[in-house]
Amino acid sequence: MNWSMTLTLLMPLVLLLEWPQLKALKSKRDKACFVAVWLVATAAMGAEWAGLQLPRPMEIIRVFCAPINAMLP
Hints:
- The protein has one domain (3-71).
- Helix content is 84%, strand content 0%.
- The N and C termini lie far apart (44 Å).
- It is flat, with a radius of gyration of 14 Å.
- The chain is mostly helical.
- It contains 3 helices and no strands.
């Protein structure tokens, strides 16, 4: 079975299940970082599914979360 395909198809479920908890926190930074990590993970799984080579995941996450952390107090 192709795990990246299965995980890619389950990613919208993760967003739907986690969003109410994030909304209850009322933290813009937590929401922004969660969405950034979620988008990176979804894109990475899609790229793996397509057979593309990617850099290490933590480097990608740092690139996306650094400007968000700098913007918010």
